[in-house]
Structure formats: structure tokens, C-alpha cells
Amino acid sequence: MNEFQIINKYFSSLSIRNKGSYNLKNDIFFDFKKKIAVSIDTYVEKEHFLNFKNPDLVIKKIFRAALSDLICKGVEPKYYFISGSGDKKNFNKKKLKLMHNALKREQKKFNIVLVGGDTTKSKVLSFTFVMVGYSKKAPVTRNGAKEGDDIYVTGNLGDAFIGLNILKKKVKHNKNEQKYFVNSYYHPRLQTLFSKKISYFASSSIDVSDGLFQDLNHLLYTNRLDYYIDVSKIPISKKLKIFLNKRKISKIKAVSNGDDYQILFTSNKKNRKQILRFSKKNSTKITRIGIVKSVNGKRLPNSTKNIGYIHNF
Q1: How confident is the model at residue 308, as a pLDDT?
Q2: What's the CA gap between 159 and 145, in Å, rounded?
Q3: Residue 272 lies in domain
Q4: How far from 63 is each of 25, 52, 185, CA to CA, in Å?
Q5: 275: Cβ contacts below 8 Å, ≥ 6 apart
Q6: Which H helix or E strand runs over 177?
């Protein structure tokens, strides 16, 4: 079974009496009375990050990845908890100092503060982040899309995938390419400015963590909807376009492997001018890439069911 099948079969029923749990299908919990949102993420070495040779870069990346769950829902982050499991090799003075400095910078950048956590001795290195935030409005969930809605994504996709493969030594590259793509992998550009306005535009939303098409499936699955994507409109950087052409790597592959942490959302067609206006005024790249369709018994030609990352057990 995969992670979602396990949740649906064994755990969703435990949350059925609580509206803010969203049947465990939205990555966050929201208290509608107190307007508090909570998300939790766990990251394990060799599963979510390659190694801990650069603890400052690793902790920064997974901090932003965890923060992304609130950002994409229109929630303003305020506090976080962090729990770490590891041994003295991972938690020596040098590495702890690097982690401290990295988190200090992240706290200042995103106006968030550490309020608690836990440490455990273990042979397996892992970190768990609990993010807490506030929202005057209900968060934008995964299940609000309707047939005919436009599909948008912020920023560019695919740079992080190349960065990861450079770290894995799976693709040829030069020094300039390494610097750009590895930096993109370790420093996801979270769309905090757009997050503050997303509730005005979006009918549903998710962050691109598992890959564009995998996350589209997560976004539309509960409403039994499908999608059509114009691949030519999927936004990628100029450097990635050049890199893909040189190495003969498909665009679909590059944008289907996650770690981008951009906001993928749907919106009614009537909002097109507003979204374009916001994009131009705030220098925020927002690209309309497709449309939500009904399933009608069969999937559309370019809708992909199994491209992207998913935990299988």
C-alpha cells in the first residue's frame, strides 16, 4: 500500500468528528474557532535528503519544505517545533552550530520562532517539524476545485530535480550549472507574498512537493476530477531549458519529481484578470498551465497517473 491508501484505510475514520482535520487529506489541521493551523512533516536521511555533510543546507531545505504546507494554504506561520533523532556523529558541536545559524536566519526571513521540540538518540537520522500558523479565513484546501477551473502554478519548476541529480552524480554538468541547480535544490523559493492573497483567488491549492502531476492527482482526486495541461506552458527557468536541451532530458521528467515547493492552485476563470494584475504588480510569476476537466469514465491523454514521488510500503 502507498501512504494515502494507509491513511484512508486505517486512520481517516479516527478524525471523522473533527471538521478541521479534513479527513486527513489536506496536510494541515485548522481550528475554526481559534483560527490556528498546524502541519507536521518528517524527513529521514537517504529517503528525503541524501546525507548530512552540509547540515546548514539540509536543515534549511527541510525547514522550508515543512513551512510550505502552511504557505500554500494561505496561512501565516508563527511558531514551530523541531524534533531530531540521530547520533553523536550527526549532532556534534560543529554541525549543531551550523544548524543553529541556519535556523536563526530562516526565523528572521520568515518571521517565525522556535517554541519547542525533542531529541532522541538513534542510528537513523531524522527530523520532524511541526508548523503553527494563523489565518483569519479558512485555509484553501485540496478539494475545492470545480470543472472548468483554470490551473495555475507559481514560479518555475524542475530546477530542484536537476540539482538533486547533480548531487547524486547522475547527470553531467559544469561548475556554473552545479552552483545554480544545487542552490535551487537547497533553497526553495516560497511564495509568501502570494500566500497572503491566495484565498481571494484559489478554489483549491497544494504545494509542489511530489512532482507536478502527482500533486495534481492529489488536488483533484477527492472530487473525481481530471485535468488537461499544456506542457509548453509549464514554467521552467531559461537555465533549465538550456540544460534539458543539451542533455536531452524531457521537460515532463524534470517537472515531475518534486522538491519545487511552488504553489499549484485552481481558480475560476472570472479571476484571470485579477491574478494577472497581482502577478505584474508584485513581480510574482504565476502561470496558467491548464484546465480542470470531468473524469467521464476515462483519463485524458496527457493526464498522468503515476508520475512523481509517493511512499510505498
Answers
A1: 66
A2: 27
A3: 150-294
A4: 21, 14, 13
A5: 152, 201, 267, 286, 288
A6: helix 175-186
Q: Is the dihedral of CA 53, 2, 131, 64 positive or negative?
A: positive
- Same domain assignment for residues 218 and 281: yes
Between 28-32, 236-240, 294-298, the lowest mean confidence (pLDDT) is in 294-298
The rounded distance, in Å, linking the Cα atoms of 129 and 135 is: 19
Dist. CA 132–CA 73, nearest whole Å? 12
Please report, to the nearest 10 degrees, the dihedral formed by the alpha carbons of residues 85, 90, 94, 95 taken in order: -60
pTM for this structure? 0.94
What total of structural domains would you count in the chain?
A: 2
Closest C-alpha to 78, from 118, 40, 115: 115
- The grid coordinates of residue 287 equal 502561470
Length of the chain: 313
Are residues 300 and 230 in contact, defined by beta-carbon separation less than 8 angstroms? no
Q: For cell 540544460, what's the residue?
A: 243
**Whether 18 and 68 share a structural domain:** yes
Helix, strand, coil fractions of the chain, as percent rounded to 5: 40, 25, 35
Residue 308: inside a domain: no
Mean pLDDT of the chain: 93
Helix (H, G, I), strand (E, B) or coil at 174: coil
Report the DSSP beta bridge partners of residue 169.
none
For 103-124, the pLDDT digits (tens) are 999 999 999 999 999 999 999 9
- Confirm whether 249 is domain-assigned: yes
Give all strands (DSSP E) within the chain, no chain letters.
Answer: 28-31, 36-44, 76-86, 113-121, 126-134, 150-154, 202-207, 225-229, 263-267, 286-294
